[in-house]
């Protein structure tokens, strides 16, 4: 199923010759990510854009069954393609758990247990503080160093032409250059309910929707892959947007 931008949109535009493929909120669904890579590869083989950029909007881990495989795929992709990896709130929380294992209890409540298990580490909810410390030590030992480095090096935003890519959204009324990272990773209602323009057209995920929403001021491409089996790919070239 595909969705195109509404005809009365402001028609944000990318620089000539640039095509962007954007994906958000993979959440450990490695099999769906592989399918989207195949779609991108076929599209590029058919049309051969001058410069293609693959932009990933965060939340690579947690909830879904295979966070480890997802990170392997993304890191491998970065070696062959022009890629940009943004930070999601799940990656931010994970790195905070590495610094403070006591936060593992909360992490488990929103999908961290599945990430731990994907690395072959056994874990159950309700661990005591000492058990949490041991668990985090075991997890960091089981994780390839390149996975931890990848998660620590993610960037908060990416801008190209008239488009601003971010995980969750932006706070209305604040210039894009002055946004707080907490809003970029976590914001919902204030952003989602705003009808104002943000300085650039915002492409985001974070809040699941039944199908991609291409609105006048923003595009939400989080279609809840881990729960729905639907991972959305947004293709942008010139002033054309297509969600698949």
UniProtKB/TrEMBL annotation:
GO molecular function: bis(5'-nucleosyl)-tetraphosphatase (symmetrical) activity; phosphatase activity
A GO biological process held by the record: RNA decapping
Gene3D superfamilies: 3.60.21.10
Superkingdom per UniProt: Bacteria
InterPro entries with a match to the protein in the record: Ap4A_hydrolase, Calcineurin-like_PHP, Metallo-depent_PP-like
Pfam family, one: Metallophos
Positions of the Calcineurin-like phosphoesterase domain: 19-209
Species of the source: Bradyrhizobium cajani
Official protein name in the record: Serine/threonine protein phosphatase
CDD domains: MPP_PPP_family
Any GO CC annotation of this UniProt entry: cytoplasm
């Amino acid at each position: 199923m595909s969705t195109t931008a509404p005809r009365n949109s402001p028609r944000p535009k990318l620089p000539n010759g640039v095509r962007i493929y954007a994906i958000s909120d993979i959440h450990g669904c490695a099999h769906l990510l592989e399918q989207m890579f195949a779609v991108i590869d076929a599209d590029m083989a058919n049309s051969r854009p001058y410069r293609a950029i693959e932009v990933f909007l965060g939340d690579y881990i947690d909830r879904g069954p295979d966070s480890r495989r997802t990170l392997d795929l993304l890191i491998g992709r970065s070696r062959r393609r022009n890629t940009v990896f943004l930070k999601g709130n799940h990656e931010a929380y994970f790195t905070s758990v590495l610094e403070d294992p006591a936060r593992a209890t909360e992490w488990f409540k929103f999908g961290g247990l599945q990430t731990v298990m994907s690395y072959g580490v056994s874990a159950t909810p309700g661990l005591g503080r000492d058990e949490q410390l041991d668990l985090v030590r075991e997890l960091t030992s089981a994780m390839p160093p390149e996975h931890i480095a990848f998660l620590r090096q993610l960037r908060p935003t990416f801008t190209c032409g008239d488009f601003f890519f971010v995980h969750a959204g932006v706070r209305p009324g604040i210039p894009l250059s002055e946004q707080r990272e907490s809003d970029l990773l976590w914001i919902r209602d204030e952003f989602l309910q705003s009808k104002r323009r943000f300085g650039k057209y915002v492409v985001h995920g974070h809040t699941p929707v039944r199908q991609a929403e291409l609105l006048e001021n923003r595009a939400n491409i989080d279609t809840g892959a881990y729960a729905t089996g639907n991972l959305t790919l947004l293709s942008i070239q010139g002033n054309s947007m297509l969600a698949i």
